[in-house]
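Example 9 (inverse folding). The structure is encoded as follows.
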C-alpha cells in the first residue's frame, strides 16, 4: 500500500490530553433548542458529581453552538446570549470549576458557526477570541469548520492554536474539521484531537460506519493527540442498549475522546451503567496511548486488539450482523504469546476465565464482547538452536497488518504476504513486519546469541527505508542503520548472554512509512 502520509508528528506541547479527554457536550441532545441554557449546563455539572461521573474520569462540561449573539459588540468581541446565559459565560465557567470540573465552549474556523442562525466564527478574530475565552476561564475549545471561505484548513486551525497558546492558559484544542483534509496527517502538532469523520447520528448505521472510518487511522493517535470519531450517542434513544455497549466499547478500544452527548440530568440506569463502566474506561484511558487496530474482519465479524501499558491487550469481538454469531481469535493473533496461560476478563459481565490461546464468544446481534487479556508467566525457550519464527512472542506491534510468520508483510490480514525475499534469495523462515514494529520474546536468561539477515523485501523494489534494531533487556545490542529497498541485505548478530528479554524493533528511515516491508530473514536464537 502506498501510504502517502508522514508518520505522526510530535504532539502539541500544551501538556493536555495525555489520555483521551472525557466529558460532555450538549449538541447531540439539545442542538440549538431553547432548552440549551445556563440552567441546563449547570445541571449537567451537578449531575457529574451527584451521579458519580466525575469520580470515574469525566471532567469537561462543554457547550456547543448557539451560546452567543448573532453579532459581535462594537469592540469586536463575542457576546453571550443574555436569554440563554443571563449571568454570562464566565459565571457558568466559575460554577463548573467550583465542582472540580473544567469548562469548554465552541466556535468555528470560519466567518460564522454552523447553525443556520449564523453566529460569529473565529476566522480573522483568533487572538481576540482566545484572549476573551481565557479571561472567562475556558479550558476547552471545540473549533468547527463551517463558513471557512475556502481558506486552507491547516492555516485556519494553526492560527487558532497559536492564539490559544499565546493566552498562557491551558486550553484543550479539539479540531472539528470533519476529516475533509486528512487532519490526522497535520493536526497533531496543533490540536489535542481532530475529528476524522462527519457528524454522528443516533443510529446503528451511523455509529458503525464512523467506527469503520476511524479504525484505519491508529498510527496517528497517541498521548496529547487523538483521532476523534465524534461524540457519544449513548442514552439518546436511537439505539438499543446492546448497540450502545458496542458504541462505548469501540470508542474505548480506539482510544477516542469520550464525550457524553445525552442529557445526564435524568439518565436511565442502563445508560449510567454503560457510561460508568470503569473496566472499559480503563482501556480508553490506558497510559500507553495506543489506538486499537483491526485483527480480522469478515462477514460482519470484527476483531480488534489494543496494546496496554501492563503488557496485556484488550480485544473486542464485534458482531455487525442481525443475528447472534460466534466470533473467535487467538492470543497470538492479537499480539500476545509466550505464556502457558492467559487471564480473560470480560469487561461487561466482569467475569474472569483462563485460556491457553483461544478467545471466542457467542455475540448477540450488533453486540460486542470485550476482554482484557493478561499473560501469565512466560515460558522461556529450551536449550539448542531455534528458528525464531517457530517461537511464541510475548507481544507484537506492527505498523500495517499483523507481524507475519515465515511470510512478508502484506499490510492487511494474516498470511497475505509472499515468501520472504532479499536480493533475490528466498528465506523459508523469518518475520515479515512493517514499520513501525516491535516484537518481544521472553528468554529467561538462558540464551546466548541471536543472528539474522535483515532488509527491505524485494516485493517493493527500491522503495521503502527502515532501521532494524535489536535490544537485550532494553539496551541496544545491534543496529543495522538505515536500509532501503535498493540496499543489499545486512547481517546482525547480538550477544544475549543472561538476557531476560529480546526485543526486535523496526523504525521508519526518517522519511515516512511508505512501502516499509521489513524482513527479519532466517533469524536464529541459540540457547543453552
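The amino acid assigned to each position is listed next.
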Amino acid at each position: 500500500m502506498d501510504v502517502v502520509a508522514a508518520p505522526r508528528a510530535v504532539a502539541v506541547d500544551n501538556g493536555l490530553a495525555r489520555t483521551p479527554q472525557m466529558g460532555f457536550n450538549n449538541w447531540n441532545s439539545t442542538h440549538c433548542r431553547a432548552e440549551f441554557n445556563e440552567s441546563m449546563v449547570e445541571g449537567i455539572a451537578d449531575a457529574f458529581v451527584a451521579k458519580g461521573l466525575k469520580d470515574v474520569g469525566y471532567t469537561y462540561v462543554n457547550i456547543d453552538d448557539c451560546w452567543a449573539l448573532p453579532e459581535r459588540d462594537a469592540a469586536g468581541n463575542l457576546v453571550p446570549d443574555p436569554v440563554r446565559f443571563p449571568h454570562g459565560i464566565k459565571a457558568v465557567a466559575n460554577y463548573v470549576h467550583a465542582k472540580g470540573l473544567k469548562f469548554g465552549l465552541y466556535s468555528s474556523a470560519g466567518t460564522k458557526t454552523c447553525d443556520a442562525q449564523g453566529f460569529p466564527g473565529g476566522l480573522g478574530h483568533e487572538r481576540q477570541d482566545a484572549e476573551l475565552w481565557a479571561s472567562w476561564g475556558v479550558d476547552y475549545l471545540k473549533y468547527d469548520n463551517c463558513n471557512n471561505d475556502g481558506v486552507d484548513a491547516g492555516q485556519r486551525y494553526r492560527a487558532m492554536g497559536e492564539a490559544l497558546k499565546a493566552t498562557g492558559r491551558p486550553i484543550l484544542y479539539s479540531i472539528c474539521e470533519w476529516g475533509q483534509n486528512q487532519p490526522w496527517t497535520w493536526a497533531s502538532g496543533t490540536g489535542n484531537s481532530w475529528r476524522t469523520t462527519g457528524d454522528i447520528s443516533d443510529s446503528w448505521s451511523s455509529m458503525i460506519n464512523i467506527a469503520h472510518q476511524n479504525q484505519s487511522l491508529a498510527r496517528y493517535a497517541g498521548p496529547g493527540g487523538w483521532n476523534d470519531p465524534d461524540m457519544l450517542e449513548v442514552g439518546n434513544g436511537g439505539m438499543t442498549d446492546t448497540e450502545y455497549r458496542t458504541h462505548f466499547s469501540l470508542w474505548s478500544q480506539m482510544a477516542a475522546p469520550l464525550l457524553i452527548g445525552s442529557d445526564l440530568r435524568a439518565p436511565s440506569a442502563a445508560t449510567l451503567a454503560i457510561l460508568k463502566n470503569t473496566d472499559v474506561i480503563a482501556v480508553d484511558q490506558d497510559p500507553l496511548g495506543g489506538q486499537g487496530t483491526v485483527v480480522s474482519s469478515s462477514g460482519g465479524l470484527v476483531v480488534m486488539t489494543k496494546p496496554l501499558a501492563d503488557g496485556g491487550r484488550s480485544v473486542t469481538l464485534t458482531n455487525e450482523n442481525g443475528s447472534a454469531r460466534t466470533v473467535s481469535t487467538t492470543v497470538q493473533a492479537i499480539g500476545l504469546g509466550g505464556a502457558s496461560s492467559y487471564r480473560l476478563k470480560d469487561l461487561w459481565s466482569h467475569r474472569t476465565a483462563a485460556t491457553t490461546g483461544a478467545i471466542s464468544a457467542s455475540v448477540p446481534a450488533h453486540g460486542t464482547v470485550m476482554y482484557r487479556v493478561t499473560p501469565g508467566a512466560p515460558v522461556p525457550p529450551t536449550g539448542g538452536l531455534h528458528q525464531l519464527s517457530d517461537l511464541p512472542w510475548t507481544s507484537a506491534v506492527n505498523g500495517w497488518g499483523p507481524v507475519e510468520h515465515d511470510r512478508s508483510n502484506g499490510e492487511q490480514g494474516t498470511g497475505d504476504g509472499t515468501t520472504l525475499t532479499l536480493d533475490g534469495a528466498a528465506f523459508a523462515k523469518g518475520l515479515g513486519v512493517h514499520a513501525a514494529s516491535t516484537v518481544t520474546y521472553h528468554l529467561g536468561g538462558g540464551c546466548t546469541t541471536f543472528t539474522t539477515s535483515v532488509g527491505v523485501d524485494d516485493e517493493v523494489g527500491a522503495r521503502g527505508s527502515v532501521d532494524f534494531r535489536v535490544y537485550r533487556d532494553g539496551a541496544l545490542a545491534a543496529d543495522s542503520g538505515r536500509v532501503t529497498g535498493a540496499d543489499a541485505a545486512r547481517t546482525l548478530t547480538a550477544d544475549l548472554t543472561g538476557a531476560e528479554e529480546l526485543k526486535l524493533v523496526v523504525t521508519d528511515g526518517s522519511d515516512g512509512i511508505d512501502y516499509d516491508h521489513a524482513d527479519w530473514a532466517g533469524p536464529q536464537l541459540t540457547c543453552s
